[in-house]
Structures are given as structure tokens and as C-alpha cells.
Amino acid sequence: MFDSDFGSRARSFMVRGVVVIALVAIAVKLGDMQLVNQMVYGKQSENIVTRMIVEQPLRGDIFDRYGNVMVENDPAYAVSVVPHDFKSDEILPLAELLKMDTTEINKRIEMGEKISPYFPVLLRPDISFGTFSSIEEHLREFSGVYFEVEPKRVYLAKARAAHILGFTKEISERQLEALGSYYKPGDIVGYTGLEASYETILRGEKGYKFLAVNARGQVVGRYDDGKSDIPTRQGSDLYLTVDDGLQALAESLLVGRRGAVVALDPNTGGVLALASAPTFDPSVFSGYTSRSEWDSLVNNPDRPLFNRATMAALPPGSTFKLVLASAALEDSIINDNWTIHCTGGFLYGNRVFHCDEPHGTVNIIRAIQVSCNVFFYNLMLKVGFRTWTKFGRMYGFGQKTGIDLNNENPGIMPSEGYFNKIFGKNHWTKGYLLSLAIGQGEVSVTPLQLACYVMSIANYGKYYQPHIVRYIKNARTGKIYYTQYSERTLPIRKDVFDQIRHAMYLVVNGQGGTGFTARLPDVEVAGKTGTAQNPRGKNDAWFIAFAPFDHPKIALAVMVENAGYGATYAAPIAKSLIQYYINRTNPAPQQAPAGVVAEAAVH
């Protein structure tokens, strides 16, 4: 596990010990004042008390794979009150200065009193200089009101990367109950993205200062000249696998659409880009967020806060045909000599299952290249439900990938048991399987899962757990920590991957290949198109790809909701991203520094 730099238990004991010592020292000092210097200090000692003020630490910074700062901190003024000292008749004038509703101030004070009436409660973070000046001018008119300098997040990346980075926000009552005694009302906490999944790493450790205040709760000086204060400890920094420039390009290519892009390094599983559209500006949540701003995001019908890259579970269309091809070839159910004659449709029972066009006689390579549905209808009946399900799960479908983000949808990888549960035993037929063969029906996947799927095909069955954080750097000691990520090898023969990869190459570069719109003159791209029916409108467009063909450096999945054909709308996006990443002139990623490999992932 991580050393004590990342823990708070020992520090908590230390803080409590120092507080006890400080209180004892105060008691001794008061005794001295009363017994030895009663004549001099008697009246003053009756009116002076000590308050412990919590100081918020700087959160750790976040860097991209090239060492460029994506997120850091700026100082900002905040206003707090001590409930015990604050007078109810002062609420209205303070609310007017802060431009807050008195109901909200009362609610915050009540929440703080439940913890302790003597601890300051945050009323308003990130106040303007004008507000600061107005309150400072009238400070002596209020009891128990304090200014505090607190850090707020500043976003410096080219990309918004909102669904990767996430955002911080004032802690909610529900989180106060769930996250433990470290947190108090008014604390800033990671809500989504890496800010949430690496909260205990990024947050740092609070500091404590002791102030002398008079009977009106007004500060008259520092206790013991600040010698008993405990300084804050800055949070640790995150160094990511993300390419800020590629991320920015992915976001720009999705503007005006609903969709997602996930690009991975097929040699490590590191996330190069993860974009969800529409997106939002995470700086909206840095500092004070008005109710109207929050409501406008939460109630937006396009759901900009929803991470489509990890949470949108949709039918994958023809991209899923490679699962069935893997099963048929690995189990030697067919070989590349087995053919089907496609006339443009397949009659099963009293229903015709359609193909986009008559493809004539095709084998498995050609069927993938031209995306022939009829071939895969026939192949599904030959392979069978159980084998198809087994290989789908082997590729990771129907389960979470384990990416270091908190919210992830496992999708649905149907099985006979699943069908028995939703349709009833003996109430479904093999006809239901034909839709599954072409990635329709009850199967659903996320863009992240499809990116992992094409990554494992690109590198002949090596499946790496996708991840965003490359390493962690302790801001105080400079010590480096690496988190562990799993890897496994799919039990599929190399010659099977050879055939599937060759077919994917022809999808983009061969005559009649459905992914010709992803073709590049100087980079050999391999891919697979997908067009999935969407009951809410136009088809969803999919495209998965890797490049360069011989030595892959990028594997990606693109999804555009309600757009149309994958070749028309998703493949060109993939083409632009591949061209940018392979041909970019930026320096190589920072060399990995020496460090300690953590025994467990932090998220």
C-alpha cells in the first residue's frame, strides 16, 4: 500500500494531540494570568477565547502525458462564520453584501452547528474583490465572520477534458455521511472524473491555525504567535496518459453532435483521449456555482454531464461481427473456404432479415470487408448462442473495464440465461439470435468497451486494463508512485487474429470496403464500421480502428448518436484523429521517472 504520505490516520492523531496540547497550554496560561497577574490581566482574560480555524490545502495539479499542466490552483477569498459567535440579527446585512438568500445562510449555519458551533462554516467561496472590500469595511459590525484564502481550480488545458478531469464542488449532506469524519460542511470535494476517483490523493491534508478572539467573536491576534499552528499539506499531482492536443481535436470533431471518442495506446491501455459530447466547462464549478448555472446543466435535455464514453450502453452494430468471427475461427467451426451466397436477404421462418445489398458469394474475410449481414446470420446459427456469449465475455463485454473513473456501465452481453429471464424459458427462438449476430437486439456496449476490444485485436489478444493516470507524484517529497493495472491474454490463436486483422485492413483499404472514408495515404489503417438502429431516431454511427497496421500506436472507437451510417459520420472522425496522432511533431512523452509501484490501485 502507499506510505503514510497518502494516509490521514496518523496525521489525524497528530492533529488531535496538538489540539489537546494547545488547549492545555491555554489553560495553563489562563491560570497564570488569573493567579499571578490578576490585577493586570483580569478584565482582559474574561473576554478573550481561542478559535481553531481549519485551512484548506492546495489540491494536487494534473498534467498530460507531455508534462503540460491541465489543472492547477489559484487563491480565492471565502467568507465563513462561527455559529456560536454569529448573531441572528446580522444575517440580513451580511446576506445583502454576499448577494445570498438568508435561507441559504441559515441552512449552512444549522449544518455547521450539527458538527460543532465553534468551527467556522463556509458561507460563500470565491468572492469578488469588490465583495471582499465591502465586507472588510464593515467587518467590525459582524460577530464571528472570517475571511479565508482557499484554493480554487484553474483549467489550463487546450481541451476541456471535462469527463476525464471531472470537477470539484462543495460537499453535499449525502457525501458528508458517506465520506467520513475528515470532511466538514463547506469543504470542497471531487464530484466526478479523476477529481472524484483520486479524491484522497488530490485533496492533501488540512492545516489548523489558532486565533485569539474577543467576546464578539472578532479576531484580536494569533494564539502563541502562530507557533502552535499546523500547516496544510498539498495534495499529490497526477500525471496522465492523455494527449491534450488529441483530446482537444476529439472534442472539436464532436461539436454539435451527441457522441463519444475513446482512443487508447494499444501497448499499455493508457487513455490517449476520452471525449463525450455535448460537454461542459468544468470551470463553472470552480469557486461559487449559482443555482441557475447548476440547473441549466442538470436539466439540459442533451445531458452534458453524462459521460457517454463510459456510460452510454448502445447496440454496437456491425462492429460486433468480429466477436462472431473470432468464435467461428478459433473453434474451427469454419475456415476461410466456407462461403455463403448473399442475395440481399435471409429468410428465417416467415421473416426476411435484410442485408444492405446483394454481395454474392463471400467468405469470412470478404464478409467482414463489405459487412455482409447474410453471412453472419448464417454463421450465428452455426456457432450457437453459448459460444457467441463466451467469446463476447472474453473480449470484456457485459462487464466493467475497471478504468480509473467512478462511473462506468457494464453494458449487456446476452446469454441463454438472460433470455430466459427477460422473455421466459421456451418463449424465445433462434430467430432472436440473428439480430445479435450483427450487433443489434439486446446486446449493448460502451464506446470504452469497443476501444478495449479493438485494442486487443490490434495487439493479438493482449488486453490491458484501460487507465488514465500514469503515475502520482508526492508534491512535498517528490516521490513517484505507480498504480497497478491488470493485463491478460485472450485464448485466441495468432492465425485467427491474422485473418481478422487482414479483413479489417481491407475494410479501409480494399475494394468495396465499408470503411474507405478512413483511408489515409501515408498510414495503413485497419477498422470496422457499424450502423446500429436507434428507436429514438436515426441510426447510431460506429467506427473502430487501429493504426499503423503493422505496429499499432493507437486504437480507438467513435460513436455518433442518431447520425446515420458509421462510414459517413464516425469513420472520418477516426481518420482525423489517427492522422493527427501518428503524424504529430510534439516531443515524445516524458520518460517515466523511477518510483515505487503501488501494491493496489488508488481508485
In short:
34% of the residues lie in helices and 21% in strands.
Structure in words:
With 603 residues, the protein is an alpha+beta fold. The protein folds into 2 domains: 48-235, Penicillin-binding protein 2a (Domain 2), CATH 3.90.1310; 315-464 and 488-577, Beta-lactamase (3-Layer(aba) Sandwich), CATH 3.40.710.10. It is 34% helix and 21% strand. The protein is built from 22 helices and 24 strands. Strands 2, 3, 4, 5, 10, 18, 19 and 24 form an 8-stranded mixed beta sheet that branches. A hairpin with a 5-residue loop joins strand 8 (207-213) and strand 9. Helix 1 packs across helix 2 (38-45), helix 13 packs across helix 16 and helix 15 (373-383) crosses helix 18. Residues 6-15, 17-46 and 599-603 have low confidence and may be disordered.
Topology, pairings included?
Blueprint lengths: L8 H27 L2 H8 L3 E7 L6 E2 L5 E13 L9 H8 L3 H14 L5 E4 L4 H9 L7 E11 L6 H4 L2 E3 L2 H7 L8 E3 L2 H5 L1 H4 L4 E7 L5 E4 L14 E4 L3 H10 L5 E6 L6 E7 L13 H8 L9 H4 L9 H10 L9 E3 L2 E4 L2 E4 L5 E3 L1 H7 L2 H11 L1 H10 L21 H8 L7 H7 L9 H12 L3 E3 L4 E5 L6 E3 L4 E3 L4 H16 L16 E9 L2 E11 L6 E7 L5 H4 L1 H13 L12 E2 L6
Helix pairs in contact: 1-2, 10-22, 13-15, 13-16, 14-20, 15-18
Weakly predicted, low-confidence segments: 6-15, 17-46, 599-603
Biggest sheet, in brief? Answer: 8 strands, mixed
Number of helices: 22
Tally of individual domains:
2
Spell out the CATH superfamily of the largest domain: DD-peptidase/beta-lactamase superfamily
Q: If classified by CATH, what would the architecture of the largest domain be?
A: 3-Layer(aba) Sandwich
Helix and strand composition category = alpha+beta
Strand percentage, roughly?
Answer: 15-25%
CATH class value of the largest domain: Alpha Beta
Mean pLDDT: 88
Morphology call? elongated
Distance between the termini: 13 Å
